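Section 3.1: Structural characterization of target chains.
Under the original work plan, the team committed to producing a structural model for every single-chain target entering the pipeline before any wet-lab resources were allocated. The record below documents one such target. The sequence was received from the expression subgroup and is listed exactly as submitted; it comprises 125 residues.
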Amino acid sequence: MFENDTEYMTSAYKMLYKIETALKYRIQSTYSSIYGLSWEPYLKSHKSFDKMFYQDIIRVYKQDKYLQSYFSKEELTSLDNLRFIRNEVAHMKVITPKEHELLLTCYNFVVKRKDSLFVNMDDNE
């Protein structure tokens, strides 16, 4: 990996981390406001929330009546397609400019969303 690749991939990892963290935060805040402190069983998942993989998180957004409408179908498809990019980054494979563009698009509609309940994740940059 060249120095340029290191910066490029560090940026990709950072965006992925923020996207996944924001998605999980939204689930947790929505469910805890509806069901209180014991909200996790209402997810109806065979895994605990902390053990859920990225695809499990996306499945919650696709199937849950409280979260289903938060993203458009196109946005959910884009988020679902991030699975492959996430795997590339996790296995230290340099992503293509097209994959980086999808990642940036998802980052912008998840983390930078103006109507979001997400914590402002850019404060510490």
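Residues 3-110 form one domain.
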